[in-house]
Amino acid sequence: MSCYKIKRETIQIPHRQFDAAMATINYLTEMILIPPNTTEFVYSGHCGSLCTDQFDPSGISILFVQLHAHIFGTKLKLRHFRNDTIELPWIAYDDKYDFNYQQYRMLDEERKVLPGDRLIIGK
Fold first, then answer.
1. What is the pLDDT of residues 8-50, one digit of tens each?
2. What is the tens place of the pLDDT at every residue in 84-100?
């Protein structure tokens, strides 16, 4: 079961050239049940076209990313798909994720997400 959620916090100033917002991509659930004796468990969150279709027609630009998981998270990547068939280069990844070392990461180059694109956070 996937749920879509976007949290938008915008500060608007008259005659402002640019707006900034924060988007959260996650899986909404009351709890995560991991079967006993499991050595690996894949958990992912989705921002599909139901979410991105709400973007401005020119899309949004991603400048920073904060990958986040709880204590048991070990690997994360933010994947980007266009037209549901083309996987673009990953936006961010961390194959040695450490809950105690979380920070915003500035991307080497701005990434454009267009209406209809899909983002997936997970392993």
1. 555 555 655 666 767 777 666 666 777 888 888 777 788 888 8
2. 889 999 999 988 888 88
Q: Which domain holds residue 74?
A: 1-123
Question: Which residues neighbour 108 within 8 Å (Cβ) at sequence distance 6 or greater?
Answer: none
Which residues have CB under 8 Å from 85's CB, separation 6+? none
The model scores a pTM over 0.90:
no
CATH at residue 96: 2.60.120
The domain tally of the chain equals 1
* Cα distances (angstroms) measured from residue 40 to each of 73, 94, 100: 10, 16, 20
Q: How many Cβ atoms sit within 10 Å of the Cβ of residue 47? A: 23
